Amino acid sequence: MKKILNIVSFMLVAMMFASTAAFAATVPTDIAGTSCEEAVKTLTEAGAITGDTDGKFHPEDKLTRAQACIIIVKTIDPVASLVNGTATQSSGKTGFTDLKGYSWASGYIAYAVEHGIVKGYPDGTFKPGVNVSTNEMLTMVLRAAGYTEDKIGTVWPNDYITKAKEVGILKGIDESYPENATKGMASQMTFNQMKELRAMAPTITPDPQGTEKDKPSSIPSTSGMKFVTGSFDDNLNTFGGKTISGNIEIYTYGAKKDYSKDMKLSDKEDAYRKDTVYKFKDVKTPAWYLVENDKITKMILPVDTGFSGNVYGVVNGTIKVSSQDKEAITGFETLTATKAITWFGKKGLAVPTFTPGDGQLYELYTSNGEVRNVATTDGANGKMFKELTTGRSWTAVTEYGDSVITISSGFIPVKRNASIYIWDDSNKEYRAGSLSSIRAGKEVRAYDVSDDDSNEADVVIVK
């Protein structure tokens, strides 16, 4: 169907790589003439590293395991929510027992572990403050760039050193390098593989939206499925205490009142829709689910269930669909917590006119997944929904660094787990972005949507 498009309050850690992001940042003063000058300058401008509080880089200082994770992950530059989570969903948890005091690095460590860049120790620790060896650093860069054991060899560190030389990671580094990596060496290794690392940023593909166009191509098999009533946790990692697979398939079907272990499911394809798990945060519901390898991989859920509360997102368009009762209703195609989700409105809902590319954030008040009200900062249901940019319009960025946007009228602190959206003018739609999307010369609209007594941006929209 055709779319109708319509300072800083948290601690700034005073060490290299500790800030959430730093773009249009000042290049450290002590790298001129050093062998790593080009690498440090390039990575600083890309937001992957910062200097220390004295304005210097100290390239001969040693690097910790936590800092190594940060420089590599920031160079990859994945969508911000994959590292720091969002205002409504936390990032992945590592389970390491020794990350207290490392909240500034935990998201980067979790990302690096999840993507096989680095590993913890058998005793359940990560040892974030331990100096990383040069061989460990080159190994991390190799893994981050997509080189697996079958391409490298099984003998560590010899095979890894050989591969690092082969692909150019050790270019510009003395062969008699020290045991522990310095900040300058780490920057040079990362810079040498920067193109390959950037190519490893995960591509975010929209989840099925639960619209007419996303009806399954076949009836979902219920073979091996169990009937249960349970609750999704607030991070959507579990249902009824059972772990949810990252590739879970979600289907919606029928009314909640009809769900039972003896219910008969329809044999008609158009009775089902494919949907996304992100609509079911904190929801308790009956469900059919399939467990494979101790994880839930498929679920069939009632149509009339879903998240209840305030949802904040950008709207890419609206669609007209039929409800379970064959009545015409409106669907809102949104990015919410950086995830593509279509929410369905109640019958007769007043639908505002959406202007493509205006940078407006909307509050959707939902009950059991059904939109009951749509509002801007005017008429909002939530206690806190405030625009931080001036004039309720696009505002030019003069500088961005250390999680603070500088505009002509002042400063806007940005939360580490802020949702970032970019207006893609060529495709006339919003897409999820990363913190590096914010930089001098761009225009932004920034919003505070959390009732936490801090005047920081939870959402930043960029063009």
Number of domains: 3
Helix and strand composition category: alpha+beta
pLDDT averaged residue by residue: 87
Q: What is the N-to-C succession of helices and strands?
A: EHHHHHHHHHEEEEEEEEEEEEEEEEEEE
Question: How large, in whole angstroms, is the Cα Rg?
Answer: 24 Å
Distance between the termini: 27 Å
Number of strands: 20
Percent helix, as a range, is 10-25%
Q: Tell me, briefly, the overall form.
A: globular
- How many helices in DSSP terms? 9
Brief overview:
With about 475 residues, this protein is of the alpha+beta class. It has 3 domains: about 20-200, no CATH class; about 210-300, no CATH class; about 310-463, no CATH class.
Description:
It is a single chain. The chain has 463 residues and is of the alpha+beta class. It has 3 domains: 22-198, no CATH class; 212-301, no CATH class; 311-463, no CATH class. The chain contains 9 helices and 20 strands. The strands form 3 sheets. Strands 1, 13, 14, 15, 16, 17, 18, 19 and 20 form a 9-stranded mixed sheet that branches. Strands 2, 3, 4, 5, 6 and 7 form a 6-stranded mixed sheet that branches. Helix 2 crosses helix 4. The longest helix has 12 residues, at 65-76. The chain starts with 21 loop residues before the first strand and ends with a strand. Mean pLDDT is 87; it is low at 1-24.
